[in-house]
Amino acid sequence: MRVILYGQVYKNIYFYIQPDFGSSASTTGLNFGQLRDCYFDVGVDKKNEFRFRIGQSKVPFGFENMQSSQNRLPLDRNDALNSAVSNERDLGVFFYWAPKNIRERFSKLVSDGDKGSGDYGVLGLGVYNGQTANKPELNNRPHVVARLTYPFKIGSQIIEPALQGYTGKYVVAKDQLSPGVKHVKDLNYTDQRVAASFVMYPKPFGIQAEYNVGKGPEFNPGTDSIEVQNLSGGYITLNYKAHIKKQLIFPFVRGHYYDGGKKHEKDARSYTVKELELGVEWQPSKNFELVAMYTISNRRFEDYSLQNNTQAGRLLRLQAQVNF
Question: How confident is the model at residue 291 (pLDDT cuts 50, 70, 90)?
């Protein structure tokens, strides 16, 4: 449950505040309030083609990470890229550049219902804490991120490829550790990734695919320790945009794979994820959407306390969402 405050304070100063009143503090504590976004943009030219974003905002890494829930088709973001930045956000300073016509194209891809990611520039550069949103900085060594993307128009179709990457040192917080797990003395671990994205917007058939590789902290059940290990994974989503009078229907299928650690979880939990998702989104109007999604999942996730743990199953999920 989010109510957004935003506005153009001056011709080159914009602010955006998004509190979230539906967050879970734990499995038994639900619907706590917290900040999702709290930032301001400062344009440095008359057209605001060059701008700095200062505050807590999304880190420009991964297309699906930057999609809002009303634009994303699957109910959850993929593990492969979302494990890079849990909740997609952090405190930092980001520089974005895009020509005026491309900024308008980014906006139109969202307003036309083509499942865009929003305007994060053609070029994005930034420094951020690296511990994720609403978490204290623990080593005073910022992460550095860069992203390059461009939405090409080819006839009636728009194709957007992108490259992105980041590097830094992530600190595994002491309250994330199980008693007895081994770790490096200062709890600082190398955290680096690069990713490629490819999007063909649904006009009417669409493809969305991303893959990343890198290294980061991950629990090793063979040594009962948290170590820097290689990681890799990605997804591909196929979708279709069907118009029925003023209604929109998006059938979709997503295949998803990830092998690596989740640094934000207990003991930098080790994962192997294999999932197939089949779904459909129905929009009778721009302000309401209903999603039904069937998931076939096989997940191995292990930490010091929970080893030799693989779970497989199938589930049907339903979500109704109002956007205003």
Answer: very high
Q: Is the C-alpha dihedral spanning 305, 32, 142, 43 positive or negative?
A: positive
Rounded CA-CA distance 295/299 in Å is 12
* Phi, psi (degrees; rounded to nearest 5) at 101: -65, -30
Q: Please indicate, yes or no, if residue 6 is contained in any of the structural domains.
A: no
Q: What DSSP string runs through 242-311?
A: EEETTEEEEEEEEEEEEEEE-TTSGGG-EEEEEEEEEEEEEEEETTEEEEEEEEEEEEEEE-SSS-S-EE
Task: Identify whether 306 is part of a domain.
Answer: yes
Is 16 inside a domain boundary? no
Percent with pLDDT over 70 in the chain: 100
| pLDDT at residue 167 is higher than 90 | yes
- State the pTM of this model: 0.93
Residue span of the structural domain in which 284 resides? 44-322
Question: How many domains in the chain?
Answer: 1
Q: Please indicate, yes or no, if residue 183 is contained in any of the structural domains.
A: yes
